[in-house]
Amino acid sequence: MMGWNLAEENMTLPPSSTDPGWQYNFGIASWVAGTGFYHLPVFLLLFFVPLPFAETCFITVMGILVNLIIVPMVGDGWVIFSYERIKENLSVNNADREGPCFDPEYQDLCIRMTQWNWSFPASTILFIGIMIVFASFSSSVASRRNYTTKRLVRILTMQQKKDREDLLLSIFPKSVAKHMLEKQTSEKLLDSRQSLRDIDAQNYTAARMHQNVTILFTDI
Question: Which residue from 25, 61, 13 is spatially nearest to 33, judged by alpha carbons?
Fold first, then answer.
């Protein structure tokens, strides 16, 4: 839709004092300025919308490709930035041919500076597009790193829990070890008499002797 609206504009007209629109305000860069201010601000949402990097890159590249390359090439939009068109435009706007731009010594420099000056909106659009792609890439890398870190922490936590259970089962009788594990993982500590009610008399004494056990894991 943006490309279609842009294609309906006449990109080859020089600026005119009777035209109150983009051409009068921005001169020969009128269609570029109009594109930057009217069509492309919606792409600034890509700075804040958490889309995948591939989708953000595709949307940004296609927007710039359609609005700054395909449509302007079809409509001869970049012709107005040519050396001859700028020279002609200076002659039309300055009928008396006075000023440094009509001095043969400075005319070439004046036209080059005019090209750089009026191409600033297009350079700004390209810069914003590059920043959108860069911000999306950085966000994607950070999200992937956070996901990997959380997944690694979850795996290590599960492995540590399994190692602790195996160690308790190898040190204490099964019933005592099971009771200690249940006591560690329960949300509310139960009274020792109630928690040991189902344990036989032999294991009851051993459990009472090992209520508070500290296990130190070391790499030997």
Answer: 25
Q: How far apart are CA 92 and CA 102, in angstroms?
A: 12
Q: Give the span between the Cα atoms of 167 and 105, in whole angstroms.
A: 90
Task: Please list, in sequence order, all residues whose beta carbon lies within 8 angstroms of the beta carbon of residue 168, skipping any fewer than 6 positions away.
Answer: 177, 180, 181, 215
For 29-87, the pLDDT digits (tens) are 566 666 767 667 777 777 777 788 888 888 888 888 887 788 777 777 777 777 777 77
Residue 72 CB partners (closer than 8 Å, separation 6+): 11, 31, 78
122 is written with which tokens? 């297009």
- Residue 100: CB atoms within 10 A of its CB come to 10
Task: Residue count of the chain, please give it.
Answer: 220
Residue whose pair of structure tokens reads 């492309």 in the numeric block:
40
pLDDT in tens, 80-103: 777 777 777 777 666 666 666 777
Q: Quick check: pTM over 0.70?
A: no
* Measured distance CA(110)–CA(106) in Å, rounded: 6
What is the C-alpha separation between 44 and 50, in angstroms, rounded? 12
